[in-house]
Amino acid sequence: MMKNILVTGAKGQLGSELRAIVGEKDNYFFTDVEELDITNGEAIVKFVKQNKIGLVVNCAAYTNVDKAEEEEVLADLVNHKAVQNLAEVCVENDVFLIHISTDYVFDGSKNTPYKETDTTIPLGVYGKTKLQGEQAIVELCKEYIILRTSWLYSSYGANFVQKIRRLSAERKEIKVVVDQVGTPTYAKDLATFITFLIEKDMYKEKTAVYHFSNEGVCSWYDFAKEIVALSGNKCDVQPCSSCEYPTKVVRPSYSVLDKTKLKTDFNYEIPYWKDSLKKMFE
Ligand SMILES: NC(=O)c1ccc[n+]([C@@H]2O[C@H](COP(=O)([O-])OP(=O)(O)OC[C@H]3O[C@@H](n4cnc5c(N)ncnc54)[C@H](OP(=O)(O)O)[C@@H]3O)[C@@H](O)[C@H]2O)c1
User: Which residues sit opposite 30 in a β-bridge?
Assistant: First the structure.
């Protein structure tokens, strides 16, 4: 029998993509903070028990990387403490947990793709709280999959693609950092992988941390060039260094994820980032 599935943070980029793929199914419960606040421990227990939840996909998170530096307590509450509580509820109720984490658990000092086993050294509050959330799950849960992803974008919500689209329509020239390298990930591709895990029962006996991003490598500058080209906007994109655009938090200069483990364990093919970006524009 199909399990009842709780998706938290369902109005975010990933949650919305999941909802669009799944459609209306009786065994899926899509919730966001208004219906189910993941920091409310009692509400989580009640929801899981009442709806006989057998699997949770935690898409809820505090995702504003810069603002997290000022709102550390809130970021910690959502990304760490609530996840720890969620992990406890999952253990007590025999629930499988699929959790999403980030490339920002790494400091970016490598120059070859990060493996799941590489040392984590987050540079800012967001990365630190996300890592603590991961660690709570690994410590408490017997059955989980943690998917670390990077540079998520989607047609839902605010993200880099939407920002560059808008700016390039308004301006003649924009400058974008070229010294931070990673891989964009179309949230729809990640959502497709998650539904593959669930619908094909592939998650069973695969408890581990996995990396999932699109294939390939680029800088934010290259990413922006591609977005502007696909938008058809006449805007000159110029490369610049991170020092020219100081932000509240230093981001890893290199955060490409090695996806070998996921591709091997699940025999899964991941789309190339440019192909996925084109698909989003179509
Ligand atoms: N975005 C990226 O570039 C990126 C990169 C790597 C990893 N990730 C990870 O990927 C996952 C999905 O990211 P995303 O881009 O889809 O995030 P998102 O668009 O910011 O969505 C997160 C959702 O969670 C909701 N939320 C916040 N606090 C909550 C709470 N206490 N209870 C329930 N819901 C709450 C948010 O509501 P509000 O909008 O009202 O706060 C939002 O709807 C996250 O775990 C994130 O850390 C993201």
Answer: 7
